[in-house]
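User: what does the whole thing look like in 3D?
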Amino acid sequence: MISLFNYPPTEEQIWILMKIGIGGEAGLLALRILTILLTGIVLWLWFTKLKNILSIKSSVLAVGLLLISPTIWVLCWSYPLMIVKIAAVLLIVIFFKTKWWVVVLILLGIGFYNVKFLKQNPAILSKITMADAKNEVNSRFMSEDTLRIKMELPLWWRRIGYNKIFITYREVLAESLPFLDLETLYFQEVHPMEQKSVVLFYWPEVFILVIGIYFWVTSKINKSAMNMLVILMLIAFTDYLFSNTVVYQRFILMLIPLSLIMATGAEKILTNNKYIGGFVTLVVLYAVYVNGYDITHRADFWLDNRPLVYKSWYAGIRNIGVENFPKIYISTLIGNSDNYCWFYLGEQCKSDRFVFNSFDLSKGYIDNGLYAGFTGEFVGPRFKNDFDTDWESQLPSLGLTLISKENIRDTVAYKYGNDIGLVVKK
Amino acid sequence: MRSKIAIIIVVVTMVLGIVFRFTGLDKSPPSLGFDEAALGYNAYSLLLTGKDEYGNFLPISLRSFNDFKPALYGYLTIPFIKVFGLNESSVRMVSALAGIVSLWFLYKFLSVFIKDKLVCSLIFLWLSFEPWRLHFSRNAFETHLSSAFFLMGAYFLIKNKKIFWSLLFFGLSAYSYHSARLSVPMLIVLWGIDPLKWFWVDSVKEMVSSVWNGVTKMWWILALFIIMVIPVFMANSSLVLTRFNQENVFKRFYPYAPKEFVQGINPFLSFNSNALYYFGGIISGHVMSYFSPVNLNSRIYAWVKMSPQFIPGMGMLGWIEGVVFLFGLIVVIRNLRKSFEHRYLIYWMISGIAPAAVTWTWYHPLRSLNIFPAIEIIVALGAVEILRMIKNKLWYLVIALILMITVVYTINNELLYSAYENHGEYQPGGFREGMMTLKELSKDYDQVIIDSPHAQSFIFVLFYQKIDPNIVHKYADIRPKPGVEGNLNFNFEKFVFRPIDWPKDRNLKKTIIWTDDTMSKEEIEAIPGAKLRMVVPNALYDTARIITIE
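Assistant: Here's the predicted 3D structure for the full assembly of 976 residues, as structure tokens:
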């Protein structure tokens, strides 16, 4: 069982630690505590802002609903830059009046932050430039023209429907619509496509949302609250469009407006009927418990598995000693990991001893040294990713000795297996 | 003036509806699907003998591929086969006709909610080209027929004047497809007791009174409906239940909670991961998925893609309707308290979703087809709301232009692109092109071997060769028994369905072989006495070869 609490650092945590020059577990813990503190302060300020425009109960509930979201826990623990983004948006909304130019600045800033700091390449950019649309128009015409039995429609007619501008409109819509994806927002616990994502809101909360929507559209809601809701949704939408990362992180800013709507619903439930209110509270608390139990027992199911791979390799290397090997080859199949090397092994990673590159030990001459990689790199890749469970029995014939082996839950390097390990060639 | 223009638009919409539903039914989709062929051949058999392909006299359900299709579609197809013969068009005409009738009732329904006739007619024109409407009207789907009847029944129910008609159409709906057998009673009950109203009653006494009034209003309608559909449940009820056992949500997802947390314990007694919690999530998710704009608009689940309900490149609705649907939902929610008609839309949605929600698939348009007219009405309400918010009239022009292009795109998509994407797997093609040649040739040969990758290819032989149903009835006893799924081919007369084994079969005499083997003409004719008679094309590629061995 892999718990959230001892989950290895993410790439952005390591990047921050490198920038401030503090590595190791103590640095990581300090960073995590700082991130939690930042979240706490921002949410407190958010509460003080909310109580001016909503009732006290709704304000408490809105912040409470955010606090019980597993996504917020995970971001606090592993994604400080995401927390910075949430904090920045909330602080601007808290301290600036919601003028149109402030909103435009936030929207531009979010796009810049995602591309520059979070190194994301939003898919929407290729849609707007019509690159994909051109391909689709050609492909549609060609596909239809190959039909031997077909209805004949005039070319001019087909061109009205199949043209770059309209297809671009369609593709931008297709890129935007998942922003309204109820499954991802509320049904991650039972998601039909088993996508890799942390729970944003628990499924019972969808009913609180429905009731919240009812009261938002039928009651006389404070105009500034309504403005704030619309602006927060617009910001969340822009962030969603101009990001390209795991799905729950694309939705993080949507948590805030949804929590406002749900808070109103929850308040009405709690005040209108104490029995129903009590029941709903129990169900939501149970949801918190069930998900808490889940994520603290199998964090690898919910989170990115690559940090586990790096931890396994570098902690293994540290245990057997860097100095014992003339060369240490680290696989780059899932990205360059020299930052992780620095985190686990310190400055010695800068020496010539370390080689960061992919390898295939099943082919030809092998240099002496220690190899950290995937099964497929040791015994050759397999197209269907179907390796024997005792693949290590093939190693002696290649002159290799297995030092350690670990299985990871997700396939992060297809064709190379779900086992990772350290192998020595002497 | 406005109402005259509105009438013209409605007439034009209906005419266009007829044109795009009936034109080229034999070419798009270019080949029949298995279920279409089965419906057609059973109707042919009923026409000639009064019995289905198994020899059952005037059945309520067609055993077909052991899936016991409700038989009404087959019966309604009989006149078209009588007039036009057994072909693709005649099989699809009932669905096309259902599409037209459904269109008209969509307009009637829209008129209930939108009082401005011009706006109503323009929205009707737009909605008449929804992808699902075109797609389901151009394929023979008993579900589509059922959905049209359901819409008609729902219309007369909300009118609360001609309950006889409502009952009649609901009954026909139940005889057309399974879903209606649950949806109809649910809708009648919800319509009668109007539970959403309870949120605004002030006392328990008032609520009890409301429930009592509701029960007295609807019990006899419900009772009559149940009496009407008793024969459906009497006939093959255990086999229909077998089907439900395979598809239901209760069995497929057990133990509902993550398996690694409930191993070795009763999942319902687990505190850390209680099965009931996860099961609640699954059912709630199933219901909510039908309100999700992404599902309605663009997301295609694997089980949808691998079936005839798949509309390539689009969801059931056009490209903007999912968003407009959200606006419509807000309108519905805003009017819940004061308007029964708006509450009725929610009841319609819930009762239409219920049969689909208890099956294992998350979002399944085919099983929930009854709700799509309700969704369209909600979209229409959203559109009216958006139009109301627009101040600058230039936007009307922009919207009209986008919608017009969307309609053209949808038509291209359904008539051409869909034919390309859907061809092959469940619309295999080639049988129409090759069967006449096979029929002519088979007169001079002792045996015909059909080597096809399709598990039910026999149905195309029956359909395209118009095999005398009396002959097929004789083989009913040797056919795979009810409950068996997968390969349902059976040998009859000269026809043998099996894979070809060339090392052995090259020695056969007086035999015709239909095979998808990719042997070249030279390779075939190197076999003593063998001759390539025809390379059989389908709409996209050469799919089979007809080979004779003397």
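In plain terms: The mean pLDDT of chain A is 90. Residues 24-53 of chain A form the longest helix (30 residues).
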